Amino acid sequence: MLEVNDYVKEYQNQGFLVIDELFSKDEVKRLTDGLETFKSLKELPNIIQENNGEIRSIFAPQEHSEAYHWLYRQERILSILEAISEEKQYLYQFKLNNKRAFVGEAWEWHQDFPYWHLDDGVKEPKMFSVMILLQDTESYQGPLILIPKSHKHGVVEFEFKEHLLDVENDTELSLASSLGADLKYTVKRSLIKKLINEFGTFEFKGKAGSAIIFHPNLFHASGVNLSPYDRNTAIVTYNSVSNPPHPRENKRPSYLCNYDCSPIEKIGKLSTVD
Ligand SMILES: O=C(O)CCC(=O)C(=O)O
């Protein structure tokens, strides 16, 4: 069993940390039961659909479900993040990324921090994303793929797409190109090739309830879901309290960038959820 200090070293060196079955089967069941809540909410602006009409992402699930409200405050996650960052964390963004059986779409290679830096004015990558598997996940379900150690490159030059050059003048297009399959800040394929040649890749698959904590500068992507099973995940993004956003005039909605930077009070057992 790894100690917190081992986790800190592993995270700093690799840019990510996997904790198998951090959440129990019962806890995962409460979370997946909570997914039902969202089927009736398809028209809310914080529910993003794929081109095929299926739900791709549900932002701010904690506002609609006790189980998700419980999840992001878990001390099992926060104690590790506080040990790595040596400070308290607040909730920056929370989403459920769903990839429906047979049709769930891909995520291109990207880093997350450019979005939070350029769109929300966050100064430093003192942030964490934590992805939790909501079912056993295998390669053909389109799991998260990342390039170990690639966070050490810092933020690299982006590839701007010709058809998205006007994106900043069009709020709707700007949001869509941060959330859909056609991302606005991607990276040069030649760089991805170079990094993969050097560091290889890591696929985050495994048992339901397993979690990965990853650095906002780590390059990552994921493929389509070819399997007959949905691939549901929860992704909580935390930010260090000393590193608030500095939003521009046309600031993004709070389900993408939470402007309440109060530190999260950690909680324990799922029995607190009705
Ligand atoms: O859900 C996935 O597979 C990838 C998600 C991702 O890359 C992101 O949210 O930045």
Topology:
Elements lengths: L3 H11 L1 E4 L5 H11 L11 E3 L5 E5 L6 H6 L3 H11 L3 E11 L7 E4 L2 H8 L6 E7 L10 E3 L11 E2 L11 H9 L6 E2 L1 H11 L2 E3 L6 E4 L5 E3 L8 E10 L34
Helix pairs in contact: 1-4
Bound molecules: 2-oxoglutaric acid (AKG).
What is the assigned CATH homologous superfamily? q2cbj1_9rhob like domain
Q: What gap, in angstroms, lies between the N and C termini? A: 31 Å
Structural class: alpha+beta
Instruction: Specify the overall morphology.
Output: globular
- Helix fraction bin: 10-25%
The portion of residues forming beta strands comes to: 15-25%
- Rg calculated over all Cα atoms: 18 Å
What's the architecture, going by CATH? Sandwich
Mean pLDDT: 89
CATH fold-level name: Jelly Rolls
Give the C-level CATH assignment: Mainly Beta
Q: What is the count of distinct domains?
A: 1
Please, how many helices?
A: 7
Count the E strands: 13
| Unreliably modeled segments | none
**How would a textbook summarize the main sheet?**
7 strands, antiparallel
- Note the run of SSEs as H and E: HEHEEHHEEHEEEHEHEEEE
Q: Name the strands of the widest sheet in spatial order.
A: 1-11-6-13-4-3-2
Cofactors, ions, other ligands: 2-oxoglutaric acid
